[in-house]
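User: Okay, second chain of the day. Same drill as before: sequence in, structure tokens out.
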Amino acid sequence: MFETLDEVADALALDVCPMAWPIGMGGEFKGVLDFATNQISRPEGDSREFLGKREAATADNVPADIAEEIELAQAGYPAFDIEAYRNGDLTPVYFGSALKNFGVAELIDAIDRYAPPPRPQPSDAGVINPDGKEVTGFIFKVQANMDPMHRDRIAFMRLVSGTFKRGMKLTPSGSGKPIAIHSPILFFAQDREIADNAEPGDIIGIPNHGTLRVGDTLSETNKVRFTGLPNFAPEILRRVALKDPTKTKQLRKALDDLSEEGVIQVFYPEIGAQWIVGVVGQLQLEVLISRLEAEYKVEAMLEASPFDTARWIKGSDAALKAFADFNLSNLAKDRDGDPVFMARSSWDVGYQQEKNPELVFSATKER
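Assistant: Same drill. Structure tokens below.
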């Protein structure tokens, strides 16, 4: 356990504060001790799940070696400090198992007790405070195919201000056309229920057919747009090759859907037919191939790309045209149609910036 705590502290550069401790491991597992209540959650039944049995921790039911571990854990790590936690300097650590139902209730209680309240959000109209009257929120995630039987599409909105009521009309900044939200959804793990009301800080799912995109602001008056939701330049670029060339249309839809979710970024080269996907980590590529096959019935392969990184470029129309005349083979468009410079190396980025001072080469793009 101590190795795990130290690994978390080193990897995340955070102080760690154990809030619970397992009593034994493997075949000798006897439960989880919650430090706040001094109660041990005991395993029951053939599958050794937590079925509600708790008892107070005493010298008689905690083995001496475990008692020594617990003493070291409580003395050797910082005490929980809510301000340090909310400032991102410390993280509480809970031990448990979602599969066996150990520590789940304690973790949810801790989130309820310690999680920060709704925060003001920056916008182009100034800071929007949670106590504002107008209902405002922003889309931070889109998830397709949550119900594969119905090919549904859910946009997740974080409510920033006002009291949302089911059926009210809000205007997305992306389209400017009001939409009535008749079936907002609250999620808890796999459970979902219709949300009649929501308050600042709540997250509601809005079923839609591509109307809402990540970064969209929803509001009653359409006079505010939240900022600070950037796209980041990918660190891994790969070409996508179809095993069945007749499924080009399905691949295009799949890549657009997955890029809208944020699973990948997709770039369409100005020259060449093979599209390029960009990700931050290798795991995203594995998720991409799996979801293409499972959800879209598209078999594809990933091939090495000649490019190392990507930069969004901005400037006057004349400057962009002049740049494109000499670099068309290195240009692409993202899913929004914005121009992207596909660089073969970081040196190439620096060279082009120096050669074209009238253009801005950005590693981020405001959504």
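The mean pLDDT is 89.

User: Thanks, on to the next one.
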